[in-house]
Amino acid sequence: MRRTRGFTLIELLVAIAAMALLALMSWRGLDAMGRAQSQNRERGDAVLTLQTTLAQWGADLDAMVALSQTLPIDWDGRVLRLTRRSTDSATPVVYVVAWTLRPDAAGGSHWRRWQSPGFTTRAEWQQAWAGASSWASDGSSATGADVDLIPLDSWQLSYFRNGAWGPAVGADALGASTPLPDGVRLVLSLPPGPALTGLVTRDWVRPSVTVSKS
Question: Whole-prediction pTM value?
Answer without folding.
Answer: 0.77
